Amino acid sequence: MDHPPFALPHLPSLLRQAVPMLVEGVLAPLAVFYAALSLVGLNGALWAAMGWVYLGMLWRVVRRKRVPGTMALTAVAITAQAALGLWTGSAIVYFIQPEVGTICLGMVFLASVRLRRPLLAKLAQDFVHLPSFVLRHERVRQFFVRVTLLWAFVLIANSAGNIWLLMNQSIGSFLLLRTIAMVAVTGLAIAVSVWGFRRVLHRLHLDTPAAIST
């Protein structure tokens, strides 16, 4: 069966799409929370961080743009996180809850592999459109199994380290070290994922302008 040619966007193009989403959905809420914490206290910071995420989603809806799955996950997580933080009045509870949630998300990634429906195959659509014939290819499916396992390990290990930092450092030091570690580890995992996918496509000759047949 013949398929149209498919080319994976170049890394700079992927980064131009992925970095703003990472900043908007992860780094900005953290910056908003920390700024508001020093100005209006814990409760105000909780509302500010949650408001940032929902305003971002509303802005996309008003402009009739698709709300990425990663942003929807962030909204659910930050709502539960803020509700628990407001209820307990504890900054430590506020920060430890998403780390536990991230560990649970890592477990979901592992479960999706077990169910042969690797979650990364779906989330990847937030960053690059993949034709159905690419997603159906056996080697591509195997790649998404491996990369889902990689991200499960990254999520679980990173959050476990963050919990240790939270219990042994001040809130300010925790925020700084957590941000540095998150950017470094996430950036490395993204680079490995993109490199691995390009390698798979190259081996299958799916990233060439020639017609594809299977």
UniProtKB/TrEMBL annotation:
The chain crosses the membrane at residues 31-55, 67-86, 92-113, 143-165, 171-197. This is VC0807 family protein. It comes from the Bacteria. Pfam families: DUF3159. NCBIfam families: VC0807_fam. Keywords: Membrane, Transmembrane, Transmembrane helix. It comes from Microtetraspora glauca.
